[in-house]
Amino acid sequence: MSTSDHEQPRRRDTAALIIAAGLVVIGAVMLWDSTRLADLGGYSGVGPASVPRVVGLGLMGLAVWTVVAALRGDFPERPPQNVAPVLWIVAGLAAQLMLLHVAGFSIATGILFGCTARAFGKRNMAMTIPIGIVVAFFVWAIFSQLLMLHLPAGPLEQLVFPRG
């Protein structure tokens, strides 16, 4: 099949090249970190450092594949990006990180839930934040009370489960 005259040749994909660079960095960090692990492979030759090495090499292989595809222009064209939903989710994560030890797990995660719901199109945050707080409280109760794992307790958690 020949290329018609009105089709333009695909250009290299800069975003894919950036992704490939990130894959190389992550793979290199995994390989470097695996050198610090004791290689106790014993008779089989497989030890704690084996899997990180395989994953690191796999990521570097994917990076090479991504570079080749990016230079050949094999990736499909992406639609224009909508930045607002990403900013809502990032804002929710930032709020959760800042409020986690002040307001507790349930309230901080409820705010994250509300911001994420907003990013996905739910505009009524007066409804989504309380729903998120209730769901997060049940998650906190299961992890904290049943599984005895420590999650930050805020005023809501201490109201229901006071520490004696």
Walk me through the topology:
Blueprint: H1 14-35, H2 50-72, H3 83-103, H4 105-119, H5 125-146, H6 155-160
Helix pairs in contact: 1-2, 3-4, 4-5
Concise overview:
The protein is mostly helical. It has helices spanning 14-35, 50-72, 83-103, 105-119, 125-146, 155-160.
Secondary-structure content class: mainly alpha
The gross shape turns out to be flat
Assess the beta-strand content as a share of residues: under 5%
- The residue-averaged pLDDT reads 87
| Rg for CA atoms | 24 Å
SSE sequence, one letter per element: HHHHHH
Description:
With 164 residues, the chain is an all-alpha fold. Helices cover 66% and strands 0% of the residues. The protein has 6 helices and no strands.
Task: Jot down its keywords.
mainly alpha, transmembrane, transmembrane helix, Tripartite tricarboxylate transporter TctB family protein, DUF1468, membrane
